[in-house]
Amino acid sequence: MIGARRAWGLMALWLLLTCVAAMPCAAAGFRDQVVEKTLPNGLKVILHEQHRVPLVTFQVWYRVGSRNEAWGNTGLSHMLEHMMFKGTPQVGPEAFSRIIQEHGGEDNAFTSRDFTAYFEELSAAAVPVAIELEADRMQHLVLRDEDFHTERLVVMEERRLRTDDNPQAALLEQLEATAYQTSPYHWPIIGWMEDLARLTVADLETHYHTYYHPANAFIVAVGDFQVADLLPRIEQAFGVHPSGTAPDQQKNIDPPQSGERRLILKRVAQLPSLLMGYHVPNLREPDSYVLEVIAAILSQGQSSRLYHSLVRDKRLAFEANADYSLLSRDRGLFFLSATPLPGKDASEVEQAIDQALARLQGEPVSARELDKAKHQLEAAFVMGQDSLFAQAMLLAQYEIAHSWRAIDDYLPAIRRVSAADIQRVASRYLIPDNRTVGVLMPLPPQEGQAPPSGMSLHEPLVR
Predict the structure, then answer these.
(1) N or C: which terminal CB in the chain sees fewer CB atoms within 10 Å?
(2) Residue 450: is its pLDDT beyond 50?
(3) CA gyration radius for the chain?
């Protein structure tokens, strides 16, 4: 939340445990170290022992995000995330975080298109506290009208700050609403303002009882514990809950795009922005790993192709980036973005990006450049597991997208990518007929108006 609660950025989430914990052994892999058990009521438990520091991250993930909403009630998942801290018959309003802090821990939650997740960072001795609190609110949340009306105002203000007053975020929102037409990725995680104004406590009650139960959730714990000790504690606390019915997670998908789509957004901004989104596969398809390598070739570091061409040589842009996430439940977008320098037009930048893509499609990548991109991805993958929290996030995000066991497929799949694969995949997906192009046209600020802030792609909504 923003205002009533701490607003952590994505980097803060990944740096919660600045104390570096044990990284999984590359030779053994996660499959040899992680224990999975599904309780009789359907709740999956994923446990990974790490004993270098006496800390544990305990996370409860629900398979519900903005993709599980419908026309007219967008923003429900994020709104319910806020309300999950309003108490139960056993725990008073706002007492959850206070109890965790009294035991020396930290807690927070975040919502995405595919999930809503709650976590606690605690000493190993205090983990039973988190288990009892999370088990309690999975089943016994109290939704009060007065809490709802106050928190809805908080969320509406959050939307104003994060999107309405942020030209880059507004451009991303409009581009996704144009690129996705039948997919529920069409609407924003935070919801449309008109839908937020119409939400009711009854809507939240229905959403809670539909999605917050063992059959639609899983637990991830990483840290200094013994599975033989922690698992019975989890079974005792969560195993008493009725299973519930797992919702149908199959959603509409967009048919193949048959022509380029374009939009222009006029907002108060200091500079124009260019954003392009191409429909691409996700983790469930082998081409996703090729797209990972393509993104690295295009924008990983100052020796990357987009930086070398647009920023350094042609001096067209402040920055130029490729952004791709293979960890989505449904097919997503491969983004290319750039911020033109003063005096440069977005059309010049777009032409330069098109030339970079044409080169990628027409010329085989050299062995040296390909190896560099693979090494960069491998280093980022390993270093991205440098904390207990990061390892838990990795396990959970893979579980949401497909299966946590697929983590061990990442490095071998990246190493198998060939120059021919890159040409084939770039020629198949990174073409004009498969993209949506958004251009931000800056308007001058009114007198006394502060310049807008920026926002990165794919940032989750954090309370």
Answers:
(1) N
(2) yes
(3) 23
Give one word for 335, left, alpha or beta, with left for phi > 0 and alpha for psi -120 to 50. beta
Q: How far is CA 258 from CA 88, 280, 282, in A?
A: 51, 14, 20
Does the fold of domain 261-456 match that of domain 10-238? yes
pLDDT recorded at residue 29:
86
Q: Are 56 and 223 within 8 A, CB to CB?
A: yes
Structure-token pair, residue 207 = 């959403």
Cβ contact 265:438 at 8 Å: yes
Q: Which amino acid is at 256?
A: P
The residue to which tokens 């995949």 are assigned: 425
CB 335 within 8 A of CB 324: yes
CATH class of the domain at 10-238: alpha beta
For domain 261-456, the CATH superfamily is Metalloenzyme, LuxS/M16 peptidase-like (3.30.830.10)
Q: What pLDDT digit, counting tens, does each position of 44-66 carry?
A: 999 999 999 999 999 999 999 99
Q: What is the pLDDT of residues 393-411, one digit of tens each?
A: 999 999 999 999 999 999 9
Rounded-to-integer distance, Cα 212 and Cα 203, Å: 14
Task: Please report which helix (H) or strand (E) contains residue 137, including its range.
Answer: helix 127-140
> Where are the chain's structural domains?
10-238, 261-456
pLDDT category at 452 given cuts 50, 70, 90 is low
- Torsion, CA 461, CA 338, CA 283, CA 183, rounded to 10: 60
